[in-house]
Design goal:
Blueprint lengths: L2 H8 L5 E4 L4 E5 L25 E8 L3 E8 L7 E5 L7 E4 L1 E3 L2 E2 L2 E2 L2 E7 L7 E6 L5 E5 L7 E5 L7 H12 L4 E4 L11 H14 L4 E3 L18 H6 L15 E5 L3 E5 L11 H12 L7 E5 L16 H13 L4 E4 L5 E8 L2 E2 L5 E5 L22 E5 L3 E7 L4 E10 L2 E11 L5 H4 L1 H7 L1
Helix pairs in contact: 5-6
Bound molecules: fe (ii) ion.
C-alpha cells in the first residue's frame, strides 16, 4: 500500500452509515466549518521567451498513447516532442500538428498537439516540447486495476482553485476527469492562457480528460463566431478513437477495466442527434466482462436539490437516462452547481438499485463562488444522501472488478478533509441488475 494511500485512509472519519441494498457504505460528519466566499482570480503569467512552451497538458489516447498539448507565441517553433524513460535522455521523438484561432480581435499562440507512443502502462516518461525549454514528466495509467481517478469540476482560476489543485497534488492519482467549466474565460481569451499556465504543474504530469461546460461555449453569433472555438483548439480530446465526430463527446478505457463516457450537455442530445446515435453505438460495444466499470460524466446535473441551475439538465435526462440505465452505468458525475451532492441509485426520478449513483461535484473553486442553498423540500430531496456547499475535489479508487471507493475531499485551508465516502459495488457484479427481465420491465 502506497504512503499516499495510507495517509488518505488514516484521514477517513469514523462515523459510518451502512446503506444496504445499494452496495453503498457511506460516511458523513457534522462540523463547524466556515464556508469561504468567492476567491480572487489569479492571473498566471508567462515570463519566458515566446519560443518557450507553455500551458503544457497531457491526455490519454487509447491505453498506449498520450497527446501532449502546449502553446508557443513563436509561430516558428516545431510541433515536436522528444521523450524517454530516463530524465534528459530522449530516445524517441514524435511530430504532430498545430493550429491557432482568431477570436474577434484576439489571435491565439501556436497550439501544438503531438501524439506519442506506444507507451508502457504505469510508467514515468520524461519529455520536452518543441526542442526547447523545461523538461516535463508524466506517469501513464496502470494497465490493470487498481486505478485512482480525481474528479474536479468548475475549476476556474482563483485562490480556491489553487487550494483545490494543491490538495489534488498532495495525494497521488492516475487520471483526472473534469465534468466541464474550465477557465471561466467567458470570451476574454487571455484568461484561457492564464488558466493553461495555472493548470500546467498538474495537467502536465497526469492525463487530464475534460468535457465541456456552459463556460466553454463562448459563442459570438453577431460576429459569426461558432461556439467552443477556444475549447476545441486548446483541449483536444481523443474523440476519433471512440468513433465520435466531435470533441464535445467521446469515450475511452482505463486500466483495462473502466469505460469512461464523456457526454456533451451543450450539443444536441435528442434521439435523432449525432451524439445520441454515437452513445447508442458506444454502449453497444461495452463488454462488462472486459470493462466491469462504466462511468459517465457531463456538465449539467440531472438530479439536483440545490436552488442553483434547477431543471437545466432535465431535457437531457429525458432523452438519455433510459440508455444509461439499460447499460447499467455505475456512477454519473456532473458539475455546474458549485457544491457537492451525492444521491442514491436512481432511475426515472425514483430510487432504483440498478440505476447509477449521481454525484454533483462542481466545487472546484471558480470565481462565481458557492451555490449555498439546498431545497430541503425539493422533490428529489429524499434521494439526496449528502449535500454540502464547500470547495473540494473527489477521488474514485477502483479497487477491483467489484469494489470502488469514492471520497469527497473538502478544502480546509492547508489540509483537505474527507467529508463523504462510500464503497460502490459495480452493477456488473450484481446478478439482480444484469437480468434482462428487470431491464425490460423498467424501460
Ligand atoms: Fe456550468
Amino acid at each position: 500500500m502506497s504512503k499516499a494511500w495510507l495517509v488518505f485512509m488514516q484521514s477517513v472519519p469514523t462515523f459510518i452509515l451502512l446503506c444496504y441494498g445499494f452496495g453503498i457504505i457511506g460516511i458523513a460528519m457534522a462540523s463547524d466549518y466556515t464556508r469561504p466566499g468567492p476567491g480572487r482570480v489569479i492571473l498566471t503569467q508567462h515570463s519566458d521567451s515566446g519560443s518557450y512552451p507553455e500551458q503544457v497538458h497531457v491526455s490519454a489516447v487509447g491505453t498506449e498513447y498520450m497527446r501532449i498539448s502546449w502553446i508557443t507565441d513563436d509561430q516558428s517553433m516545431p510541433s515536436k516532442v522528444e521523450y524517454g524513460k530516463v530524465s534528459g535522455k530522449y530516445d524517441a521523438v514524435a511530430k504532430g500538428e498545430s493550429s491557432r484561432y482568431l477570436f474577434y480581435v484576439y489571435l491565439s499562440g501556436k497550439i501544438h498537439n503531438v501524439k506519442i507512443g506506444p507507451l508502457e502502462p504505469d510508467t514515468v516518461y520524461y519529455y520536452r516540447c518543441s526542442g526547447v525549454g523545461d523538461e516535463f514528466s508524466f506517469k501513464t495509467a496502470p494497465g490493470s486495476l487498481p486505478v485512482e481517478f480525481v474528479i474536479a469540476g468548475d475549476l476556474g482560476q482563483t485562490e480556491w482553485t489553487n487550494s483545490t489543485l494543491t490538495h489534488i497534488g498532495k495525494l497521488d492519482y492516475d487520471m483526472l476527469l473534469m465534468p466541464g467549466d474550465l477557465s471561466y474565460a467567458d470570451w476574454h481569451q487571455p484568461l484561457w492562457d492564464s488558466f493553461g499556465r495555472m493548470m500546467q504543474p498538474y495537467a502536465s504530469t497526469r492525463p487530464w480528460m475534460v468535457v465541456e461546460g456552459n463556460h466553454e461555449i463562448e459563442a459570438l453569433t453577431f460576429f459569426g463566431m461558432a461556439p467552443f472555438i477556444a475549447y476545441n483548439h486548446r483541449w483536444r480530446m481523443p474523440y476519433e478513437e471512440s468513433g465520435s465526430n466531435s470533441n464535445l463527446y467521446y469515450s475511452f478505457n482505463v486500466a483495462g477495466a473502466v469505460h469512461v463516457i464523456m457526454l456533451g450537455s451543450y450539443t444536441d442530445f435528442g434521439s435523432n442527434s449525432a451524439q445520441y446515435k454515437w452513445l447508442v453505438a458506444d454502449l453497444a460495444k461495452v463488454d462488462r466482462a472486459v470493462t466491469p466499470w462504466l462511468i459517465v460524466l457531463f456538465h449539467a446535473p440531472w438530479y439536483n436539490t440545490n436552488t442553483a441551475h434547477q431543471g437545466e439538465g432535465e431535457s437531457m435526462r429525458v432523452a438519455m437516462e433510459a440508455l444509461l440505465y439499460k447499460a447499467r452505468v455505475d456512477v454519473i458525475f456532473a458539475g455546474h452547481v458549485h457544491a457537492y451532492e451525492r444521491f442514491t441509485r436512481i432511475y426515472n426520478e425514483a430510487e432504483n438499485s440498478c440505476g447509477p449513483v449521481y454525484i454533483t461535484i462542481g466545487d472546484g473553486g471558480n470565481r462565481e463562488g458557492l451555490a449555498l442553498d439546498f431545497d430541503s423540500k425539493h422533490k428529489y430531496a429524499h434521494l439526496s444522501l449528502f449535500r454540502e456547499a464547500s470547495f473540494g475535489h473527489g477521488r474514485l479508487r477502483v479497487i477491483d472488478s467489484k469494489k470502488a471507493l469514492w471520497s469527497w475531499h473538502r478544502n480546509d485551508d492547508s489540509t483537505d478533509t474527507v467529508r463523504d465516502q462510500l464503497w460502490l459495488l459495480s452493477l456488473s457484479s450484481s446478478s439482480a441488475c444484469q437480468g434482462g427481465t428487470k431491464i425490460k420491465d423498467e424501460l
